[in-house]
């Protein structure tokens, strides 16, 4: 956005000028200086109501007072300023015009929540371009980019770069073009993150404090599936986790082969056998595990979620052995669940994280279970071999969730939840009450909070300006 002059006062809400303006996002507040709006032909008009002694000026138009309809003569993608003069004081409010095809959204605030940012990505249809958008907690888009390929999901990393998983509609690790693409906020491609050996899968890019990444892939192999109704020499894929350093070198790797038995796929075998993928010179390949989330737990353990076993596993880094299992079919590593009201535990769960207090959070889709999707919380007591249920999050607007979704802790102690294949993101405050709902025109695979201190609003503004100036 264009910078304000040195005579601009930012002030506080208590000394805001006596003017009301409709048609800006967020809702106009004299203590907020940056806004977005739809501009150009067909856009909703911007109205101002200036009280006695207050003048409003837009562009080269003369100052006016009273009821004013603002026509900034700005096209989509451009910026303009609204100057408010009140008793000799001048305030400049900067407005960025959204792109002409910027998607619609609806924001429903309910409770105040600590300010922050989060990233979503989606594509409303094959004919529309994909979007990666950073929203603030007031429901205002603060940064956006349209990638050259569909973005399965996106996040802003701790160094202020933005990363997303390329998507080519292959479902998992089949297309050699697949990568996690890392770009500057100005849109410059910096690098591609790929696994060594097998093709990387887009489900996970977990940044570690060291700067390394935990990522997933699928490794082809052959298995006898006759005991589960499949062929004798079936092409299957096992799940692999790799830790990559900043140069793409593998620091650690783990594979589900020999650790997660085919019997653990259980009720999912019908789905797995009826939905093969083409790979390996056109052969049908089956996915009995389907890893979809990776999370470190301390320095000596990695936690994974695997959809097709309805289970979450703790893996010992040193030995690669399964330390514990939560959900799914019972094995010798299974933890006893204490206090969970769900009659059947997980249903194709999609996200697992370790909260600040060490507890485990799971976004449980509840696929084919007799209940609605939820975020379930547990405290692990490995000494006693059990997991203590400590509560869950629900949104009454969500009834089912076939796939996808996420639950991420916010800096203020609340939670941000993407409800999978539902076009809704819900934020909960530290008391686990709904703080806001963000309704999108299409579902977002994940909604990911921006790490505190990674970027400022000023940096996001400058990045958008740089992209607007680019021919």
Q: Topology, please?
A:
Blueprint: E1 19-22, E2 34-37, E3 46-50, E4 54-58, E5 66-70, E6 79-86, E7 89-97, E8 106-109, E9 117-122, E10 131-136, E11 141-145, E12 150-156, E13 162-167, E14 180-183, E15 189-193, E16 200-207, E17 213-223, E18 234-244, E19 250-255, H1 269-274, E20 277-279, E21 283-286, E22 291-297, E23 301-306, E24 311-316, E25 322-327, E26 336-338, E27 351-354, E28 360-364, E29 374-381, E30 386-393, E31 406-409, E32 415-418, E33 424-428, E34 434-439, E35 448-449, H2 457-469
Parallel strand pairs: 2-7, 18-21, 26-30
Antiparallel strand pairs: 1-3, 3-5, 4-6, 6-7, 8-34, 9-10, 9-35, 10-11, 12-13, 13-14, 14-15, 16-17, 17-18, 18-19, 20-21, 22-23, 23-24, 24-25, 27-28, 28-29, 29-30, 31-32, 32-33, 33-34
């Amino acid at each position: 956005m264009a910078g304000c002059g040195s005579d601009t006062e930012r002030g506080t809400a208590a000394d805001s000028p006596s003017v009301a303006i409709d048609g800006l996002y967020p809702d106009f507040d004299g203590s907020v200086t940056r806004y977005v709006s739809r501009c150009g032909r067909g856009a909703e008009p911007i109205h101002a109501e200036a009280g006695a002694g207050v003048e409003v000026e837009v562009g080269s138009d003369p100052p006016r007072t009273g009821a004013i309809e603002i026509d900034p003569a700005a096209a989509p993608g451009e910026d303009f300023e609204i100057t408010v003069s009140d008793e000799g004081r001048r305030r400049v409010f900067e407005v960025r015009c959204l792109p002409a095809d910027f998607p619609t959204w609806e924001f429903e605030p309910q409770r105040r929540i600590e300010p922050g940012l989060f990233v979503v990505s989606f594509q409303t249809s094959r004919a529309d371009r994909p979007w990666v958008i950073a929203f603030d907690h007031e429901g205002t888009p603060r940064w956006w980019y349209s990638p050259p390929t569909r973005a399965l999901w996106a996040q802003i990393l701790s160094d202020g770069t933005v990363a997303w998983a390329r998507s080519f509609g292959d479902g998992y690790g089949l297309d050699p073009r697949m990568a996690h693409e890392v770009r500057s906020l100005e849109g410059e491609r910096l690098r591609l993150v790929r696994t060594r050996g097998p093709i990387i899968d887009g489900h996970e890019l977990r940044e570690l404090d060291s700067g390394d990444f935990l990522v997933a892939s699928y490794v082809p192999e052959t298995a006898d599936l006759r005991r589960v109704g499949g062929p004798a020499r079936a092409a299957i894929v096992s799940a692999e986790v790799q830790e990559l350093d900043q140069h793409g070198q593998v620091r650690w790797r783990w594979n589900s082969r020999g650790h997660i038995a085919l019997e653990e796929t259980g009720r999912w075998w019908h789905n797995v056998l009826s939905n093969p993928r083409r790979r390996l010179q056109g052969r049908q390949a089956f996915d009995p595990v389907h890893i979809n989330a990776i999370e470190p737990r301390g320095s000596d353990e990695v936690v994974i979620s695997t959809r097709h076993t309805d289970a979450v596993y703790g893996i010992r880094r040193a030995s690669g052995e399964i330390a514990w299992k939560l959900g799914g079919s019972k094995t010798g590593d299974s933890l006893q669940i204490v206090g969970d009201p769900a009659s059947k535990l997980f249903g194709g769960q999609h996200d697992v994280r370790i909260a600040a207090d060490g507890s485990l959070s799971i976004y449980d889709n509840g696929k084919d279970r007799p209940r609605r999707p939820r975020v379930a919380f547990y405290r692990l007591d490995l000494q006693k071999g059990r997991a203590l249920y400590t509560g869950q999050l629900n949104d009454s607007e969500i009834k089912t969730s076939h796939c996808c979704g996420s639950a991420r802790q916010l800096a203020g102690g609340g939670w941000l939840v993407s409800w999978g294949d539902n076009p809704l993101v819900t934020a909960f405050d530290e008391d686990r009450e709904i703080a806001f709902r963000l309704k999108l025109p299409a579902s977002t695979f994940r909604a990911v909070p921006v790490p505190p201190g990674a970027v400022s609003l000023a940096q996001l503004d400058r990045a958008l300006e740089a992209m607007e100036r680019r021919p």
